[in-house]
Amino acid sequence: MPSRRSFLRAAATLALASALLAPLALREARADETPIVFAASSLTNAFQDIGKAYTAKTGKKVTFSFAGSSALAKQLQSGAPASIFASADTKWMDFTEEKGLTLKDTRVTPIGNSLVLIMPAGTAKPVTLDKSFDWKAFLGADGKLVTGLTDSVPVGIYAKTALTSLGQWDTVKSHVVGAENVRAALALVERGEATAGVVYSTDAAITKDVKVVGTFPADSHPAIEYPFEIVKGQDTPAAKAFFDFLVSPEAKEIFANSGVVVK
């Protein structure tokens, strides 16, 4: 079983690859006034499909930058160019509002998600996630449970909250490995480098290499909600047009097909 350091190194490599590719795309988008959307990693597939639908309908392009919500919020704080911010939780959207980075009066929260336990497809076995679940037996002495960083990345925060609510955090915390975002956590489970992972149901749905083995009770964590806001100073016609499209019937259908909860 790979060490904790190897997990972190793999997650960091995935995050670095995204970071290296993002700046050029953002500069190009700024040059031609293309809306730039900062969105939580768990929205990658849905937003890419919505972007394609928007371009097909209007002929206009959209540029996306996907990462953990905490990383995106801090990039906005550092002056990174963006038109729209879509967070995986309310905490980081509240943060950008408090810092005067996003426009509170534009907030919409059109979608939600659920929190699931996944395993590599070859070792998956259904479990019931309640207060009596035997995590010690499930993980063994050296098993790793990967999720987002539990002090900053929304999926990791939800995971810690759910495990704490179920009275299991003290049992599992020494096995938990935090990744920079939910897709990095998913990748580690896909490759069989972790016993299991805690991700969103939408992430589990994009690959056949993992299976959902259990769903955390809805009352074990706050509702998983995705607020969207326009970035301060970027409420241009182009940004507003795509923002409106994000809550249109066409977008809602794409969201629904990706597995998110449409409100």
TrEMBL record:
<dbReference type="GO" id="GO:0030973">
    <property type="term" value="F:molybdate ion binding"/>
</dbReference>
<comment type="subunit">
    <text>The complex is composed of two ATP-binding proteins (ModC), two transmembrane proteins (ModB) and a solute-binding protein (ModA).</text>
</comment>
<dbReference type="Pfam" id="PF13531">
    <property type="entry name" value="SBP_bac_11"/>
</dbReference>
<protein>
    <submittedName>
        <fullName>Molybdate ABC transporter substrate-binding protein</fullName>
    </submittedName>
</protein>
<feature type="binding site">
    <location>
        <position position="69"/>
    </location>
    <ligand>
        <name>molybdate</name>
    </ligand>
</feature>
<feature type="signal peptide">
    <location>
        <begin position="1"/>
        <end position="31"/>
    </location>
</feature>
<dbReference type="GO" id="GO:1901359">
    <property type="term" value="F:tungstate binding"/>
</dbReference>
<dbReference type="GO" id="GO:0046872">
    <property type="term" value="F:metal ion binding"/>
</dbReference>
<comment type="similarity">
    <text>Belongs to the bacterial solute-binding protein ModA family.</text>
</comment>
<dbReference type="InterPro" id="IPR006311">
    <property type="entry name" value="TAT_signal"/>
</dbReference>
<dbReference type="GO" id="GO:0015689">
    <property type="term" value="P:molybdate ion transport"/>
</dbReference>
<feature type="binding site">
    <location>
        <position position="200"/>
    </location>
    <ligand>
        <name>molybdate</name>
    </ligand>
</feature>
<keyword id="KW-0479">Metal-binding</keyword>
<feature type="binding site">
    <location>
        <position position="182"/>
    </location>
    <ligand>
        <name>molybdate</name>
    </ligand>
</feature>
<keyword id="KW-0500">Molybdenum</keyword>
<dbReference type="GO" id="GO:0030288">
    <property type="term" value="C:outer membrane-bounded periplasmic space"/>
</dbReference>
<dbReference type="InterPro" id="IPR005950">
    <property type="entry name" value="ModA"/>
</dbReference>
<dbReference type="InterPro" id="IPR050682">
    <property type="entry name" value="ModA/WtpA"/>
</dbReference>
<keyword id="KW-0732">Signal</keyword>
<feature type="binding site">
    <location>
        <position position="42"/>
    </location>
    <ligand>
        <name>molybdate</name>
    </ligand>
</feature>
